[in-house]
Structure formats: structure tokens, C-alpha cells
């Protein structure tokens, strides 16, 4: 995915506020690109533009030589339909994509199995823990046949151990599916464990400050590795200097 010279402004209290100013970077296809930067620097605005939820002023966003296509989302909160079962919350995103009921069923159960929730298919969201609800959201995001996935701090509200358990579950499914992912987080630990590329943004108006590439496979990365420890320190140092 190529973001080229992207500009976006908003009018607030009669004054124009430039959020993105000729922002350009490349997110490798079938890889995970993490976006980091100070709070309020435009990361969520960028996700909305990439996901066709808002319109940019100028520039371009191209995925596989196409400017638009289906997008899967994973938000900080699961955003499940409370009156529907776990199964229906996943299957519903397939109804306009897959005609065959049997194919929809098979795909839904496949991804519920991958997040260890096949036995909870008939449960309602209020019968699940917070971590289980986010697993449903992960299954739903992967079940939707989109080439691009957008993650907006999906593990932010969880405690430390659960956060990394769900990140591990996400990466395990990603290793099978190989989607192009744009992942916003404030956590350097999440970034160094998940990213193939880290794009660090400046304060408003957002431009790219630094790009860090990580070549190692996910299953070989350990937070105590000296290289990853140094990388986390570098990231926090760069972000701290911007705040």
C-alpha cells in the first residue's frame, strides 16, 4: 500500500487545522506496518482515510494498484451486536460476500476455531469475558474477505498479560492469512513484536519522522532480545522528544 502526499484539514471554531501534510509512506503488501506517534498526531484520522470512512483533501492511497477495496477493522472495543450470538457476530460480515450458506458456515467456524471459541458459538457477548469478546472481533476481522486490515489500538484496554495473549493469537492467524495490516498502537512492545515496518509520525501536522524495518520472523522475537530492547528504547526516545 502506498500513501502519497496525503493532506487532510479540518475546520474547528472557524479555524483550519491541518492534520496530515503531504504524508507519504509505503506499507508492504502482506506485511504488518505499525503506526506510532504522539497522541493526537493524526493516526486515527489516517486510518479513517485509508478505510474510506473519510475523504482526504489531496494525495492518494493505493493498495495493489487499486485505490479502493474491502477493508476489515479491529477497534479498541469489540463492537459486537449484543443481541446476536458469537457465531452470528462473525457470520454477519459474510452475508454480502459469500452467497452459499454452507460456505459462510464453514468460514465462520474456521475462524472461531482459530481463536478457540468454537465451543462458544451459541453464546451472547454478555456471557463472555472482555478478552473473549475481543477474540470474537479478531475472528470477525479475519473472516471478512478483505486484503487490508486496519487495527486501531485493539488491545489497549486490556491488562498486560491478556494484551500479549491476544496479540499472539492475532499474529498466529496472520501467519496463515498474510493480510496487509496497518496497526496503530502507543506501545513500543506491541510494535516490535508485531511489525515488519514501524512508521513513526511527527506531531501535527503529521509527517513521517522515522521508518524502522524489522526482518525477523514473529516466532523468533523475544522482548528480552538486546536488539528489540534497544529498538523499544529508540522508539520511546523519539516519541518522548515529540511530546
Question: What can you tell me about this protein's structure?
Answer:
The protein is an alpha/beta fold and 243 residues long. 34% of the residues lie in helices and 24% in strands. The protein has helices spanning 43-50, 86-91, 101-114, 130-143, 160-177, 188-194, 226-240, and strands at residues 2-12, 15-26, 32-36, 58-62, 71-74, 148-152, 180-184, 197-201, 208-213. Strands 5-6-7-3-8-9 form a six-stranded mixed beta sheet, sandwiched between helices.
Q: Report the span from N to C terminus.
A: 29 Å
**What does the average pLDDT come to?**
92
- Silhouette: globular
Spans where pLDDT lies below 50 across 5 or more residues: none
Radius of gyration: 18 Å
Number of helices: 7
Which sheet architecture does the biggest sheet show?
Answer: 6 strands, mixed
SSE order: EEEHEEHHHEHEHEEH
Percent helix, as a range, is 25-40%
The percent range for strand residues is 15-25%
Helices and strands, with pairings:
Blueprint: E1 2-12, E2 15-26, E3 32-36, H1 43-50, E4 58-62, E5 71-74, H2 86-91, H3 101-114, H4 130-143, E6 148-152, H5 160-177, E7 180-184, H6 188-194, E8 197-201, E9 208-213, H7 226-240
Parallel strand pairs: 3-7, 3-8, 5-6, 6-7
Antiparallel strand pairs: 1-2, 1-4, 8-9
Helix pairs in contact: 3-4, 4-5, 6-7
Short précis:
This protein has helices at 43-50, 86-91, 101-114, 130-143, 160-177, 188-194, 226-240; strands at residues 2-12, 15-26, 32-36, 58-62, 71-74, 148-152, 180-184, 197-201, 208-213. With 243 residues, the chain is of the alpha/beta class.
